Amino acid sequence: MVVKTQSKGRGVTGLNVGSSNVQRYFPRGVSFVELQLDHLQIQCDLSPTFWQDQPEIFDPRLCAWLESKKLNTNPGRDPIPLALIPSGKNSFRLRLVPPNTQPKGKLHPQPAA
To answer: Which pTM does this prediction carry?
Structure first.
């Protein structure tokens, strides 16, 4: 699933999972998820509003990891997409989304008729 970074101010960056992803991948009532960030595995608490109107994950260790990857965003800047890959019960791997390898505006040649 694709999630996006979300900033709540200076030094507080987390993930916006999105409502449809919450409904699909997160069982209601789960109080935490495990995130694998490269070689680091952390446990992040989920607030009760996670399943309602705030599908967000915030944790100081997640924020530090995002900052180390230069993925922290400032309010008003575009969020950065990331891949959140299920890897077990209430467990996910967080990965960078590979940049689009095809240059924008380049057209593929049409096959000869």
So the answer is: 0.79
